[in-house]
Design brief:
The chain has six helices and nine strands, in the order αβββββαβααβββαα. It is α+β, with helices and mostly antiparallel strands. It has a single domain, classed as Chalcone isomerase. The protein is globular and about 40 Å long.
Amino acid sequence: MKRLLSAVLLALLCLTPAMAAELADVTLPDTVEVGARKLTLNGIALREKFIVDVYVAGLYLTEKSNDPQAILANEGPRMMVMHFVRDVDAKAINEAWIDGLEANVGNVTPELREKFVELTKMMTDVKKGQEMGFVYDPATGTDVMIAGRPRGGIPGKDFADAVLATWIGPKPGPGKSFKQQILGGK
């Protein structure tokens, strides 16, 4: 049931709300609900690769924070959504996940590495206009959605933290400017 709620939640992101944030012609709502918890848009950022726009991301938290360690330490739900502004193949996405894991997680256990392998198996080519989402619920783990379809769930806060660290860790794959924006900076 929680996975169905996550699917409905991500589908609702496609609706244009009264209050919203916009970047690169992508609009994200200021708030969303995960289960009974309201999450607030912490920051919105544009991922660029070699001056080419790739996706607009939004990080939703129970309370806004610009402190990566505090965000990762928080035990509450959170959500990251990526709205793609160009086509990206699954191979490129998977390489970014593995690179991000290696660069941002100090001690990668075999169990965590296996969870990232599981994540790479969920990835598909993503087309312009499609969204990828990661909804973390402490009770169930992280639900992965691509193009409005549930791709599966991965248990454990260790995985949720490692995925988020690829964006807000010490060496974020999308770059320091992206990290600053997703943390609510300009």
